[in-house]
Amino acid sequence: MKKIIKHIDLTWRTGKGGSRIPVGRIKKNSSKGVVFSYLKKGVEEARKNGFLLFEGFPDVNKVYDSNVLDIFGHRLIKNERSDSKFFYDFWMIETNKRDDTFYLLAMTQGLVPTDNFEFLADFYPVKDLCFITEISGLSKTQIGSNLLNERDILKPILEKDNNYDKYAVALYKDEYKIGYVKLINNKVFYASKYTPKVTVHSIERNGVLKRVFIKVLFQ
Predict the structure, then answer these.
(1) Are residues 88 and 165 in the same domain?
(2) Among 123, 157, 177, where does a domain finish?
(3) pLDDT tens-digit profile, the chain (219 residues)
(4) Do 135 and 203 share a domain, yes or no?
(5) Strand pairing partners for 200?
(6) What is the pTM of this model?
(7) Cβ-contact 217, 197 below 8 angstroms
(8) Number of structural domains, the chain?
């Protein structure tokens, strides 16, 4: 089976509308299994805005190689929950992957409503790569809720001169700039030789576009 995940970056932000800061990295090690370590530059930046180290990983200088997935896996839905099928269907999780914690963190972003951490995968640029992610920047653009519908096709444009993120990928509906592909998830757009198809997967509306999830498929 081809590998699709290089590593997962743990990001943090102050809250909705805040910039995401990569503060840690989870990756597979051939001898130690799954390891986690902090990204010191990101931690230093985030601490200026009140960031606290992730519970269970108290040492910024340590490479953790035990219980990594056990700790992070608490953020994932339990299979016995009545809404687990909806969760797996939403994130397009294959049945045989539902016990793969590393894969689930990468594909579902480990989102919970009680904090501002996200687990964002850096993907390998393989053919037929498919994942769900979210449009960033909507809190700034405040776009009317009637502009997008599910299954709409969006055009990705590489913004190579973007001062904030050198891997920035803007998303357009016709001439309207909607927002951006999330940090880290966007890197594969620059690396892949395959053509990305971006479609609207799900929308939360509240007078404006509150949250928009997209499906990305490289063909």
Answers:
(1) no
(2) 123
(3) 689 999 999 999 999 889 999 999 999 988 889 999 999 999 999 999 999 999 999 999 999 999 999 999 999 999 889 999 999 999 999 899 999 999 999 999 999 999 999 999 999 999 999 999 999 999 888 899 899 999 999 999 999 999 999 999 999 999 999 999 999 999 999 999 999 999 999 999 998 999 999 999 999
(4) yes
(5) 214
(6) 0.95
(7) yes
(8) 2
**What residues form DSSP beta bridges with 199?**
153, 215
153 and 108, same domain (yes or no): no
Greatest CA span in the chain, whole angstroms?
51
Structure tokens at 31: 């001898």
Quote the tokens at residue 16: 């909705």
Distance of CA 42 to the CA centre of its chain: 17
Q: Residue 147 sits in which domain range?
A: 130-218
Sole residue written with tokens 């799900």: 202
